[in-house]
Design goal:
alpha+beta; 2 domains; 4 helices
Length: about 230
């Protein structure tokens, strides 16, 4: 009986010792795996932090370039505005100078003769701006006369109407008739455009009373003044 108890005790001790050894090995193994995971996670965090620092650097660089581009765009916009302002000023000055020159040039010219194209002579019809054949014939005769005595001429082409209808409409049709004459002179005889001036007086300068049909027909006219 004693022997059996001794053997049992040894057996229990052996078993207990083996269990203890197995548990320590298991702990060491698990601790090692945990340490590896911790190290791996640490490296991952460090890599993430490094990428974050690099990205922040790139973002800062992009922001700097964007600010520089915006500043350059603003400077270019201001330069364009300044150039546009200078161009406008120069154009205004040129127009003013040209206008003064034309005024002086015309002021120094005298009337050589004039041609009247009126409806009562079979020319422009009521409300129309189409250049009739009768008007073209008179213009042809005028040009032939100009060629006989060639001079540095200047043409003033005036459009006139009667007082029937709105004032603005009469000014428009007067101008359309004068432009039709100017176009014919340019296309048919190549008279330079800068040698011709067109103006519409509408119903403002009648030469006959507008109370009669005959008077209104006389007022619907284009006057070509030849200056030299």
């Amino acid at each position: 009986m004693l022997w059996k108890c001794f053997v049992a005790s040894i057996t229990v001790f052996a078993i207990g010792g083996s269990t203890a050894c197995a548990t320590k090995k298991f702990v060491r193994q698990n601790v090692g795996e945990v340490n590896e995971k911790v190290d791996s996670m640490g490296r991952s965090i460090e890599e993430t932090q490094e990428r974050t620092r690099k990205n922040e650097g790139r973002i800062s660089e992009v922001d700097t370039k964007a600010q520089a581009a915006a500043q350059s765009a603003q400077q270019a916009h201001e330069a364009a505005n300044a150039a546009n302002s200078l161009a406008t000023t120069a154009n205004s000055a040129a127009t003013e100078a040209g206008g003064k020159f034309d005024t002086m040039d015309k002021a120094n010219k005298r009337l050589v003769f004039e041609v009247v194209l009126s409806e009562d002579q079979g020319n422009f019809k009521f409300g129309k701006a189409v250049l009739p054949d009768e008007a073209k014939q008179k213009i042809d005769e005028m040009v032939a006369q100009m060629k006989q005595d060639p001079k540095n001429i200047y043409l003033e082409i005036e459009g006139h109407t009667d007082n029937v209808g709105a004032k603005e409409a009469n000014e428009r049709i007067g101008l359309a008739r004068a432009e039709a004459v100017k176009r014919y002179l340019y296309e048919q005889y190549q008279i330079p455009l800068h040698k011709m001036n067109v103006i519409s007086y509408g119903e403002d300068k009648p030469i006959a009373p507008n109370k009669t049909r005959t008077g209104r027909a006389q007022n619907r006219r284009v006057v070509i003044k030849v200056l030299a």
